[in-house]
Amino acid sequence: MQAISRKKQVFPINPDLRRYLARYRRETRLPVVYNDLVRFNNTLPLLDREGRDTHWETTFYDPYTTRELHAGLTEIYALLRTGGDMNAVKHLYVERIDYCVFGNTKPFRVRVVNQYNDNADHFYVKRADASRIYGLELEDLLSPNHMTFFVCKDTLIEEHITGIPGDRFIADYMDRPNRSRVRLAKEFIKFNERCFVRLLGDMRSYNYVIAVTPDFEDEQYRVRPIDFDQQSYEGRKNVYLPQFFKDNIAVVKLCTSLLNLETMRQYQQEERTLMARRFTSARPQLEHLVGCMSKDPLSTPEKIAQLSSELGDYHQSPKFSGLGTMGEILWQHVNACLTRASI
Asked: Is 211 part of a structural domain of the chain?
């Protein structure tokens, strides 16, 4: 399999996308932006409960900057959770600001704590990358998952997506006796289909989480992506199918051991039908979004040409020939996948 690009280029927000974000209330003024958070004086490695390195570092600021940042970050949390009503979050405080140097956008993670019961929540402050914004919007419009995020100039604010990280789930949870293995396999089939239809790549096991919901005597599962940097970026078709990553081999074996080909196709068709209904109801907004996306390269000419060729072969369609941007390819691909689904 073609290797994933280790360092993807960060693409700026073009003027059309900026107008789109303003129209759909994704753009807002913020009291703290990304560059305010880089003023830390020192960091310490953040370890997990077992003492392992998390690849995050806890930041430290001078007292004046700390007070200024914490007040602004609490206001941002209120915007995410209560529409900006500070009266509803007066009992919250910022406990920690962590920094990750390995991500493409070098994100900050803010930990907010309820002083009455010590319950904690998180949100992220990142450099705004057009690829990631397109990925977040497509997830919101075409998947069953609602995404909350805001943009201010070159800063992106994202809510925390709860769930068990995929790599940890596969290693520690998947084989537990109380797992509903068939339901889990069904959800991975559907997740695989969602990623492919909307061309979200690089779904290695640490780039998604599994949310577990008790359901009478059983459990329901939802696999959710948490990394959207590789939205319509790579050239190889199989990069957009999680089943082809070696991290997910255990999941593939689970699916093939429990589900026959006919059942797998049924679940794929079920997911495409649901996506087709969302596509129909959100079509004007999707057309606006992909119109902005079609004016962005979002990848290299070589990758664009490769993906256009491979999807043209997959769909056995000449409509992919000569497409010059990832937005144009995505639109042809989504239409080709979903127009055949029952609505």
From this structure: yes
Distant-in-sequence, close-in-space partners of 324: CB < 8 Å, separation ≥ 6: 304
In this prediction, residue 343 carries a pLDDT of: 46
Tell me if 6 is assigned to some domain: no
Those residues whose C-beta lies under 8 Å from the C-beta of residue 234, and which sit 6 or more positions away, are 2, 4, 5, 201, 202, 240, 299, 303, 307
Rounded CA separation 87/243 (Å): 46
Same domain (yes/no): 123, 168? no
CB 304 within 8 A of CB 232: no
Q: What's the number of domains the chain is made of?
A: 2
Residues 311-333: pLDDT tens digits?
999 999 999 998 999 999 999 99
The single-letter code of the amino acid at 138 is L
Domain membership flag for residue 7: no
> Would residue 26 count as lying in a domain?
no
pTM above 0.90, yes or no: yes
- What is residue 271's three-state secondary structure? helix
Those residues of the chain that have pLDDT short of 50 are 1-2, 342-343
Same domain flag for 88 and 207: no
Domain range spanning residue 58? 31-127
Distance, CA of 231 to CA of 306 (rounded, Å):
15
Neighbours of 246 (CB within 10 A): 10
Distance, CA of 194 to CA of 233 (rounded, Å)? 16
| Domain co-membership, 231 together with 315 | yes
Q: What is the pLDDT of residue 280?
A: 95
